[in-house]
Amino acid sequence: MGPERDEGSPTRLMEGGAYERIRSALRSQECVLLDGGVTTELAQRHGQDHERLWGIEALASTPDEVLGVHRRYVEAGVHVITTNTWALPAVVSGDGHVEPADGHPVHWMEIARRGVEVARTAIADGGRAGEVAVAFSLNGELEGPEGPETVALLERALASDPPDAILFETLSVIRPWLFDVVEALLKTPIPLWLSFRRCLHGSCGVYGQHWGGPEGDAFGRAARRFEDMGVDALLINCIPPDHVVGMVSHLREFTDMPLGVYPNLGYYTNAGWRTASGVGGDEYAAMARRWRAEGAQIVGGCCGTRPEHIAAAGEALAGTVPGRERHDTSEAARALGGAATSAARAWTSRRGRELHPIDFPAMAQHPGVSPAVAGSLLMWRHLFEESAGAHQRCLDIGCGAGLQTVQLALNGATHVHAIDLDERAVSNTLDNAFRNGVADRVTAEVDDLYPWLPDERYELVVAALPQTPIDPLSELSSHRPTDYWGRGLIDQVIAKLPAALAAEGRALVTLTSLLSRERTVELLAGAGLVAEAVAWELHELPEPYLAQLDHVATVARSSDGYLTHLGDRPLLVTYLLEIRLAALDREVPEPPWVRRR
């Protein structure tokens, strides 16, 4: 047990009342039985669907229904009844009132008093007055700067008929405000229990989802601090039963407080409450015995757990003592880790490349170097997944910062030559080649694609180039022809590939959907080339397209090029073409550009 409270406390529970019976049971190693999901019982029976205020509204408008649920738990043999006030902090933080169906608002203080009164009436009706304690339920929304003040007001509201304990439950993150509110609650004469949504992985949600990184023994240290502050018991609640396993034995390393568990068997969805199927009284009793074997001293249930579950657990735990069974974390880790490892090994490309994490090159972007164009990452992904360029001489046309150049070299290319019009891009590419340890297989030089002529042949040529249509009226005069259709650079690549490709070489070239397919096929055929689409992607319009949006629309209307749309949002398709010399293509497709299957 935690530190004893002042025997001179005004709380009548210290005078041999129901709570003192609870303390006595814990000292004698008996299992204290908590009730189950009060509000979910109401929801299942009466169709409540207001997630935040479920239960509170019932206390305001139909307290007899709440009374009926409490009575069933009293009959099930529980030792502690929790008030149906879990959502009260949400009311306090609002305007302080609940407006039930009859239209007569009820203040939160009245709801608080009514919650205790209804619970006590159920206990008396069951003939167990002085035997069953009432725990006043509050959720984590009590945290925050106004929390201590709310606690002071709550103590005044409950002064005439205080509960036997306060259950501050469904907590999660250990924030500084939490300790302030706990300290304020401990200043009242009412014993305090705390309960958290926690499992061995850390913070845990109602569905068993985890968030936050590894935190070591942070929660255990917080438990020890709570004990030193004077908290009477620490519990785990509102997470699936399988996530409860191991928590009691873990917490026992840090604290001597009574420990307990009350997991959920259901949760709220947009379609209403859903409860676990196939978990009856016998199954719940078996789980309760396991928690008890680990040392649980308090056992109950949360959302979806019904009186029959609690009754079965109580019968199974009668006469037992808390065990010291250690949860085999290594076995669990092996089971989880084995599955995780198997899954991770399955995350590979067709050629066996690990996909988690993605082995993306270390890339720096020098000032002034143009960002990646549409299709650059599509090209990179294909090079990565296919290990393209291995043992080949490669050419990267329009290298930019060098992403394709570096990946080809990392794939095992014997040599990669990169060209770009911008001297800063050439320098950036060489820098990134050094950064990734492939500088010995990379060369780069400044070349203007329009006058450039290849002076050697390559097994693989890659080109991911800008393809932005330009309105002639928006451009100043230049020695370059105005790129009305956005295909000036791609047309230069097509024209020069016959001289750049080795006899059995291939080129990988990105082509946006705005560029005419008919014109591309015509140019390929004229150059003695054939192509097939080996990959594609959808993406938002790049910034240069948005700056010329009217002209982009004109281009799309004037050819078989196109944009697609998601609602009103225009989207661009980028294709990755694999181009070869037609003379070596034994099965020329008809038409000559089709997607590979």
Describe the structure.
The protein is an alpha/beta fold. The protein has two domains: 14-333, TIM Barrel (Alpha-Beta Barrel), CATH 3.20.20.330; 376-467 and 485-584, 3-Layer(aba) Sandwich (Rossmann fold), CATH 3.40.50.150. It contains 21 helices and 23 strands. Strands 1-15-12-11-7-6-5-2 form an eight-stranded parallel β-sheet. Helix 17 (423-435) links the parallel strand 17 (415-420) and strand 18. It starts with 17 loop residues before the first helix and ends in a 16-residue tail after the last strand. 42% of the residues are buried. Residues 1-15, 46-53, 332-344 and 585-597 have low confidence and may be disordered.
Short description:
The chain is an alpha/beta fold.
Which properties best describe this structure?
single chain; alpha/beta; TIM Barrel; Rossmann fold; eight-stranded mixed β-sheet; 21 helices; 23 strands
Largest sheet: 8 strands, parallel
Helix amount: 25-40%
Q: Could you name the CATH topology of the largest domain?
A: TIM Barrel
What's the number of helices?
Answer: 21
- Round the Cα radius of gyration to an integer and report it: 35 Å
Low-confidence stretches: 1-15, 46-53, 332-344, 585-597
Q: What share of residues are in beta strands? A: 15-25%
What structural category characterises the helix and strand content? alpha/beta
Shape: elongated
Task: State the domain count.
Answer: 2
CATH second-level architecture of the largest domain: Alpha-Beta Barrel
DSSP strand count: 23
Lateral arrangement of strands in the main beta sheet:
1-15-12-11-7-6-5-2
**Name of the CATH superfamily of the largest domain:** Homocysteine-binding-like domain
Per CATH, the class of the largest domain reads Alpha Beta
Through-space gap between termini: 69 Å
- Rounded mean pLDDT is 86
